[in-house]
Protein backbone atom coordinates (compact mmCIF):
# COMPACT_ATOMS: atom_id res chain seq x y z
CA UNK A 1 0.00 0.00 0.00
CA UNK A 2 2.80 2.39 0.92
CA UNK A 3 4.49 1.69 -2.42
CA UNK A 4 1.40 2.74 -4.33
CA UNK A 5 1.02 5.97 -2.36
CA UNK A 6 4.70 6.74 -2.90
CA UNK A 7 4.41 5.95 -6.62
CA UNK A 8 1.33 8.16 -6.92
CA UNK A 9 3.15 10.99 -5.17
CA UNK A 10 6.16 10.73 -7.50
CA UNK A 11 3.95 10.63 -10.59
CA UNK A 12 2.08 13.72 -9.37
CA UNK A 13 5.32 15.64 -8.89
CA UNK A 14 6.59 14.61 -12.32
CA UNK A 15 3.30 15.64 -13.93
CA UNK A 16 3.32 19.05 -12.27
CA UNK A 17 6.97 19.63 -13.16
CA UNK A 18 6.39 18.54 -16.75
CA UNK A 19 3.45 20.90 -17.16
CA UNK A 20 5.39 23.76 -15.58
CA UNK A 21 8.41 23.23 -17.82
CA UNK A 22 6.36 23.35 -21.01
CA UNK A 23 3.73 25.94 -20.14
CA UNK A 24 5.82 28.85 -18.88
CA UNK A 25 8.77 30.87 -20.04
CA UNK A 26 7.64 31.13 -23.64
CA UNK A 27 9.03 34.63 -24.12
CA UNK A 28 10.73 37.48 -22.37
CA UNK A 29 8.31 40.28 -21.62
CA UNK A 30 9.89 43.55 -20.62
CA UNK A 31 7.58 46.17 -19.16
CA UNK A 32 7.73 49.54 -20.83
CA UNK A 33 10.11 51.78 -18.97
CA UNK A 34 10.66 55.30 -20.12
CA UNK A 35 14.18 56.62 -20.57
CA UNK A 36 15.80 53.42 -19.34
CA UNK A 37 18.55 51.49 -21.06
CA UNK A 38 17.87 47.84 -21.87
CA UNK A 39 20.70 45.31 -21.85
CA UNK A 40 20.63 41.66 -22.88
CA UNK A 41 23.07 39.02 -21.59
CA UNK A 42 23.62 35.36 -22.42
CA UNK A 43 23.12 32.98 -19.48
CA UNK A 44 23.96 29.29 -19.65
CA UNK A 45 22.80 26.59 -17.25
CA UNK A 46 19.11 27.49 -16.89
CA UNK A 47 17.19 24.29 -17.67
CA UNK A 48 13.64 24.93 -16.46
CA UNK A 49 11.25 27.78 -15.62
CA UNK A 50 12.13 27.61 -11.94
CA UNK A 51 15.75 28.45 -12.69
CA UNK A 52 15.19 31.98 -13.86
CA UNK A 53 13.27 33.21 -10.79
CA UNK A 54 16.28 33.16 -8.47
CA UNK A 55 18.44 34.89 -11.06
CA UNK A 56 15.88 37.67 -11.53
CA UNK A 57 15.70 38.25 -7.76
CA UNK A 58 19.49 38.49 -7.44
CA UNK A 59 19.82 40.88 -10.37
CA UNK A 60 16.97 43.10 -9.15
CA UNK A 61 18.88 43.61 -5.88
CA UNK A 62 21.49 45.59 -7.82
CA UNK A 63 20.66 49.27 -7.13
CA UNK A 64 21.07 50.34 -10.78
CA UNK A 65 18.60 47.72 -12.05
CA UNK A 66 14.98 48.70 -12.53
CA UNK A 67 13.74 45.34 -13.82
CA UNK A 68 15.14 41.93 -14.77
CA UNK A 69 13.52 39.23 -16.91
CA UNK A 70 15.24 35.91 -17.56
CA UNK A 71 14.25 33.35 -20.18
CA UNK A 72 15.53 29.81 -19.72
CA UNK A 73 14.60 28.74 -23.27
CA UNK A 74 16.40 31.60 -25.00
CA UNK A 75 19.19 31.48 -22.38
CA UNK A 76 18.97 35.24 -21.94
CA UNK A 77 18.69 37.85 -19.23
CA UNK A 78 17.11 41.20 -20.13
CA UNK A 79 17.65 44.06 -17.68
CA UNK A 80 16.40 47.63 -17.59
CA UNK A 81 18.82 50.10 -16.06
CA UNK A 82 17.36 52.91 -13.96
CA UNK A 83 17.51 56.28 -15.73
CA UNK A 84 20.66 58.15 -14.76
CA UNK A 85 22.19 55.18 -12.93
CA UNK A 86 25.74 54.01 -13.57
CA UNK A 87 25.74 50.30 -14.41
CA UNK A 88 28.79 48.05 -14.62
CA UNK A 89 28.40 44.79 -16.57
CA UNK A 90 30.57 43.04 -13.97
CA UNK A 91 27.75 43.47 -11.42
CA UNK A 92 25.45 41.46 -13.70
CA UNK A 93 28.09 38.79 -14.35
CA UNK A 94 28.65 38.48 -10.59
CA UNK A 95 24.91 37.99 -9.96
CA UNK A 96 24.77 35.34 -12.70
CA UNK A 97 27.67 33.46 -11.08
CA UNK A 98 26.11 33.74 -7.59
CA UNK A 99 22.94 32.16 -9.03
CA UNK A 100 25.16 29.23 -10.13
CA UNK A 101 24.86 29.91 -13.84
CA UNK A 102 27.49 30.65 -16.46
CA UNK A 103 27.59 34.16 -17.87
CA UNK A 104 27.97 34.55 -21.61
CA UNK A 105 28.57 37.75 -23.51
CA UNK A 106 26.47 40.89 -23.49
CA UNK A 107 24.28 40.76 -26.61
CA UNK A 108 22.83 44.27 -26.52
Structure characterization notes:
The protein has a single domain, classed as 2-Layer Sandwich (Alpha-Beta Plaits), CATH 3.30.70. 41% of the residues lie in helices and 24% in strands. Strand 2 and strand 3 form a beta hairpin. It is elongated, with a radius of gyration of 17 Å. About 14% of the residues have low confidence.
Summary?
With 108 residues, the protein is an alpha+beta fold. Helices cover 41% and strands 24% of the residues.
Please work out how many helical segments DSSP would assign: 3
Question: CATH topology, what is it called?
Answer: Alpha-Beta Plaits
**Oligomeric status:** single chain
Number of strands: 4
Strand content: 15-25%
Number of domains: 1
Structural class: alpha+beta
What is the class in the CATH system?
Answer: Alpha Beta
**CATH architectural type:** 2-Layer Sandwich
Spatial separation of the terminal alpha carbons? 56 Å
- Helix proportion of residues, in percent? 40-55%
Mean pLDDT: 79
Strand arrangement in the largest pleated sheet:
2-3-1-4
Main sheet: strands, sense, barrel: 4 strands, antiparallel
Measured on Cα atoms, how large is the radius of gyration?
17 Å
Return residue spans where pLDDT drops below 50 for at least 5 consecutive residues: 19-33
